[in-house]
Amino acid sequence: MTEYIYLIPILPLIGFLINGLALNRLPKSVVSAVACGSIGLSFVLSVILFFELKALEPSSRVIEQVLFPWISVGSFHVNFAFLLDPLSAIMILVVTGVGFLIHVYSVGYMSHDPGYSRYFAYLNLFTFSMLTLVLADNFLLMFVGWEGVGLCSYLLIGFWFEKKSASDAGKKAFIVNRIGDFGFLIGMFIVFWSVGSLNFNQVSSIAPTVFAFGGTLITAACLLLFVGAIGKSAQIPLYVWLPDAMEGPTPVSALIHAATMVTAGVYMIARTNVLFMLAPDALMVVAVIGAATALFAATIGLVQNDIKRVLAYSTVSQLGYMFLACGVASFSAGIFHLMTHAFFKALLFLGAGSVIHAMSNEQDMRKMGGLKKHLPITFMTFLIATLAISGIPGLSGFFSKDEILWKSFSSQSGHPIFWVIGFITAGLTAFYMFRLVYMTFYGQERMDEKTKSQLHESPKSMTIPLMVLALLAVVGGWVGMPHILGATNYFEDWLSPVFSHGEAVNTHALLSSTADSSMEWLLMFASVALVLVAIYLAYNFYLKKTSLSTAMKEKLSGVHKTLLNKYYVDEFYGAVIVRPIIYFSLFLWKIVDVLIIDGLINGSATVYNDISEFLRQGQSGRVRSYATIFTLGVVVLLAFFMTD
Amino acid sequence: MFEVFFPILFLFVLAVVIALIMSGLSVFIGKRTKLGKKDEPYECGVEPVGNTKEPVPVKFYMVAILFILFDIEVIFLFPWAVISDRLGMFGFIEMVVFVVILLVGYFYILKRGALEWD
Amino acid sequence: MIDISTAVIDFGLIAPEISLVAAAFIILIIGYTKRLGKFCALTALLGIFVSFYYTLIQYGNPGSGFSGMVTSDDFGVVFRMIFLVTALLTILIAQNYLSLKRLNKPEFYALICFSTMGMMVMANSTDLVVMFLGLEIMSVPLYVMAGFARRNLASNESGIKYFIMGAFASAFLLMGIAFIFGASGTTDLKRIIADLSYLSEFSHFYFYSGIAMILIGFGFKVGVVPFHSWVPDVYQGAPTPITAFFSVGPKAAGFAVLLRVFSFGFAEVEILEPTFWVLAVVTMTVGNVLALRQNNIKRMLAYSSIAHAGYILIALTAGGIEGVSSAVFYLIAYALFNFGAFTVIIMMESRSGGTTEFSELKGLLKVHPYLTSILALFMFALAGFPPTVGFIGKFYIFSAALKNGFIWLTLIGVMNSFISVYYYLRVIKVSCFEDSDSEFAPMSMTPALMFVLFITILGTLGLGIFPDQILEFSKTALFAFL
């Protein structure tokens, strides 16, 4: 079956082509059958391939499928090729599996939307791009997928483009991502320049011979690649687009902005782990940024009132965890959390979508409350996901988060401070998640009568995906239980061939300094205890004595306001980055072009709009000033040539 | 030195003399008419004195430009004529090509109506 | 005196040029006759095909003749093919536009043929004087074509401006050639290069100022900053199909000469490297920054074409095998997607009362979803996104620069291409996300326009996914007579 790898991304592409080219001419049932069917088949194929891969010897679990030589010029060879190894196998399972559930969910969620087939076409195109990204066997093809998911994200965030905020958010996401892509591209250039290849396997085997361990060049390359990851995965300082991206339809937020696309940065770092292992300084930066983002975003999440924004900041925070794991050279822990997070965060978003659906598109939690009895299935599944993300023992989030915390404490590249930050963040996470649950599902019903009368549980096409995801959120972590519980960490073993190259390069990175099982037990109990305390606090603040939270809010109004305004980062960027660029462009346009060229005759700034005006007045002087510029250029150039 | 350039000097003097003879002859044997039009620099064409903003038919320029084009290009025939025997068949063919190009141009302006006055 | 009897007279060498001129002559003759007048476009196309055939024959058969005045090499063949395809596409997109604007005159087709022939002469010689001759044969018809819409003030202005500035630049070019001739006693590039070390030592002043002025003269044609100021006005004022022709043909011709003179010829002259470095940076940046705030698509594309010239200058700075082949590849790529973009604009403009303002695009998505995606495709190609050929082209240029150690230049280039995303994206944003306040007038979609769209889409996507063949092709262009 391995010769059919290419079908995995191609199937959604076919779905996209059918739905995209038919343009609303197909009945909705056909559209949804094509969209869900194509990705469903991809998922089935992924499962089959996974088991075929599993049947192989661990050392030979690398299958490269070259479809055709893509670019081949001189020393530059790139194949259009897919790579199936334990890492990409996990990723395609997550992307097609979670993706399939979200497609099914969307059938119910989007059923009344006029852009039904456009929506599914974009969604399929996204799946295709994402699968290309994770299956690519070289940097260039990965970049193609990378840009593709960015484009789809832009289209889907701005899906309801009638809303100005939606199209603005789309633009913001797109432009912020450009900064990240810039880093990725340059990093890729440096890798190619030094290694002479863009193929992941070749880079992994050649890189240790051409780069000096910890050298400047490799550090620069890794940092630039990491800039790409920062942009795509919404880390400090480029996280600003993700909360705004919530303007898109909720299933999109679940698929793109929680489960798959935003994790592409983590995947990329795991994929290039050899490079990062060669650059301990870059790894340190990854860990610091990851830890800082985890804490920072969690604090903002504490006070948001929009249900989707809480989840958005939570996503940023959880992505920070994954980067922290990568930064302490524990890539498998990062990927593990990526997988479990995909389950429970997708579930949270879909649950939120179900709530919003029932609440007639209301997203403000202050107007919810008491939904528990109206939406029983949504409530149950949402609660499971909340328990999972909070790290209640036994659920998936517990295992992955605990592994990250332990690795950030014990790994040679880790530090107790990382553990402390992760530990605090875990408490904050439990707090804001239970705040969300209490405000939404418990307490008084604060919605207006009309909304209340229309409250209803979502249709089956929406609740079944919820239930499946809830199951996954519970059991998903069982494949990666820690050794101290006497279990085998299947997940780590499965991925170990992928990361063995990197470990061979930097053998010191992972040696546990204080690999002491009693210590591990202690830390685990501490974090569980903190989570329980946080839940209790949230219970007190938001359910039992709501006056407490108001009092607290007043007492700490400065802090509260800062948090509510997200530390004023958007404003800061506006003032420090965006405005100067606009001013600079205005300067060039107004001063250089208008004042010097046009200004001689026409000082008006609207000269380009008003062509007739411009023609009437702008006939005589302009060519002269053009010639003046020309002559100045000649003088400078000649002078330069003469001085040589 | 003198022997080399004598023919040129001769040509120069001859040109001056012939010009003088021509204009002198017209002074002596030409019939005189005293009409106002005759005192003006040009008998036809643009009025030399008067309002400069007066529109001038573009056809004047048209004809003048076309004339100059053909005039100057015909001058190329002279150097060819001087050494045509040395250039032989090749030179002849080249010149035929040149003339054909001019002819195409002539045919084009004819068809385009540039030479029609009205 | 040249001894005519020993000079190699091989009309096969200039058969492509002859076919075009013949076609132009036939057009001039039949253009105003009653019965044959409607076959002008057909004649031009025929001439282009014949010319293409003769060009193709020369591929891989290098030759030289007319006392070294004409040189046929693969480098020239590749460029002549670019020019011919450009001319072909221009004629296809122009027909409907010209009849709508009542400009359908036989001269248009003749001028295209003449101008294309001039470009071919430029790309096909190693003699500076012949290059100049070609430049003038190319330029004079361009001046006329810029002012082709005689009743339109903007077009008139465009023609006059282009003419004045063009004459100005030609003066410098000629002066530069004269200086070099004065220093070396020849205008044949091959012989100048043979004496290069002698010249730069003993005739430093004349030789260097000559080089600088030649750079200015040809740099003007491709829109290098600070010799670019004519570009926006001329592009905006000229009739749109002619603007499309401007932005591709003369630009490629100018780069053909720049590559031949500076990347093959004077590659040893060390001062050129920093010069091109600075020119590339300034050209990209000015083009991109000024494009940010334009309200007219043609004007925006004019500034964008300046920026693209800047990217190609990066390849010239890098030099070497990679530099030259990446420049050639980029020119091919740019010709494709730029033409595609102009085709869509021509369709927009064909609506009654249509202009080329951004606001014209409002509501396009609802009425013409396919056309909107096509426009978006070209914009993504211009911005350099995968999987379009725009990405491969930029990638190839940047990796050429990196391979030759120009890290900062690459950084600035990549940064610039990210700036450019903003204004290309605006086209998509307006056409997808903004609604028109008035009824969307129908636009003409003739088979010729659809054909051009088909070709350009095929090229933009096909070469983006399978760039191999053309990359190889542009590498063969490296075989040049120098």
Structure description:
The complex is a heterotrimer of chains A (644), B (118) and C (482). With 644 residues, chain A is mainly alpha-helical. Helices cover 72% and strands 3% of the residues of chain A. Chain A contains 27 helices and two strands. Chain A has helices at residues 7-22, 28-55, 86-109, 116-135, 139-157, 164-195, 200-210, 216-232, 241-244, 250-259, 264-271, 273-278, 280-301, 307-327, 331-358, 376-390, 396-410, 416-441, 449-453, 460-475, 490-505, 517-544, 546-555, 557-564, 569-598, 611-617, 621-643, and strands at residues 63-73, 76-84. Chain A has a two-stranded antiparallel ribbon. In chain A, α3 packs parallel to α15, α8 (216-232) packs parallel to α13 and α10 (250-259) packs antiparallel against α15. With 118 residues, chain B is mainly alpha-helical. Chain B has a domain at 53-118: Methane Monooxygenase Hydroxylase, Chain G, domain 1. The model of chain B has no long low-confidence stretch (mean pLDDT 82). In chain C, strands 1-2 form a two-stranded antiparallel ribbon. Chain C has helices at 15-30, 40-58, 74-100, 106-123, 128-146, 153-184, 189-194, 196-202, 204-222, 230-237, 240-265, 272-291, 297-318, 320-349, 364-367, 369-383, 389-403, 407-433, 447-465, 468-476, and strands spanning 63-65, 70-72. Chain C is globular. Classes of the chains: A mainly alpha (644), B mainly alpha (118), C mainly alpha (482). At the A-C interface, β1, α5, α6, α25 and α27 of A face α6, α9, α10, α12 and α14 of C.
What distance separates the N and C termini of chain C?
Answer: 25 Å
- Could you list the spans of chain C in which at least 5 consecutive residues all have pLDDT below 50? none
User: What's the helix-strand series of chain A?
Assistant: HHEEHHHHHHHHHHHHHHHHHHHHHHHHH
Helix/strand order of chain C: HHEEHHHHHHHHHHHHHHHHHH
Oligomeric state of the chains present here: heterotrimer
Largest beta-sheet details of chain C: 2 strands, antiparallel
Biggest sheet strand order of chain A reads 1-2
Radius of gyration of chain C: 22 Å
The amount of helix of chain C comes to over 70%
Strand order of the largest sheet of chain C: 1-2
